[in-house]
Amino acid sequence: MSATTTQNQLIDRFGRTVSYVRLSVTDRCDLRCVYCMPEKMKFVPRTQLLTLEEMESVGRAFIKLGVDKIRITGGEPLVRQNIMQLFRNLGATDGLRDLTLTTNATQLVKYARPLKDAGVTRINVSLDTLRPDRFRDMTRVGDLKKTLDGIDAAIACDFEQIKINTVVLRNHNHDEILDLVNFCIERGIDVSFIEEMPLGQNDHHDRAVAYYSSDQILEDLQQHFELMPSTMTTAGPTRYYRLGGHDNTRVGFISPHSHNFCDSCNRVRVTAEGRLLLCLGQEHSMDLRHVMRSHPGEPEALEQALIDSMQIKPKGHDFNLNSQEILLRHMNMTGG
Ligand code: SAM
Ligand code: SF4
User: Which of 223, 138, 110 is nearest to 177 (CA)?
Assistant: First the structure.
């Protein structure tokens, strides 16, 4: 099998077309969520990060090769200095249909309106609990009110979609699933429940013990709601359900353990250092920073590297609750 480009499309060896890129703009964050990074996280030196101009070049090269959805993520994207410049420039690029953001919302009171004006279509906000003391425990440093105010600020700006992302951990927040769904119903926004992924060494909790499956969540919710599978897709791994009687809220599941989504994988990630990761759960990668810095002013070199990378996109991940395959790469470095 060989990878190809057809009509400016990136197609891998397994016939999957890459149309979605998750671009991490920093590995830094103002929170320290227990499933994402250790309390004393060592961040990448700033000098090793791509500049915002280089990130824009990466985004443009992908768009030229048929990518029509870019999600800006991190770390916390809104703590990167001058980040609005990247949103504005990508938002103004022809060919990009969907410019989206994943954020912890701590800065959304300030940034929601400028993000909307820059062309951001949809925002995912991480929120694992509605209890202030628990929020502090799960984020180690966070203030729930700041995140809730940020969510309200985003709702006021009328984005196409606002979705809450909740990582569910047994004995930490699994008893709040219903409260979180009701929170979203009251606001007319969506929610996705995520199974924890084994990225980075975790000394906080035993991941196998904290595992709470999507099927279990579905069962919990079926005690209270009628849930109907939906055909809705946002080109990501989420499986959506409609909620009987609540047309403005969908419940999604991201289930790397129980419902592997590799066969329909359409995405790649770029870390803040410019490492193109071909799979969330494997180390196959390409150093785009090196390509750009050794071929300055040559966008064709970058485009060729992206085409070549299709040769090494793996068939899939092999997450296993009882082994720690990716010890060094935490989610904030991966671009979750
Ligand atoms: N700081 C932003 C935020 O929290 O939304 C963006 C980056 S964060 C790494 C992106 C998403 O990854 C969040 O929804 C977070 O809950 C999720 N995440 C982090 N670590 C995870 C893990 N080990 N397993 C599953 N999801 C994880
Ligand atoms: Fe920060 Fe997001 Fe990771 Fe939480 S999940 S520590 S908010 S990057």
Answer: 223
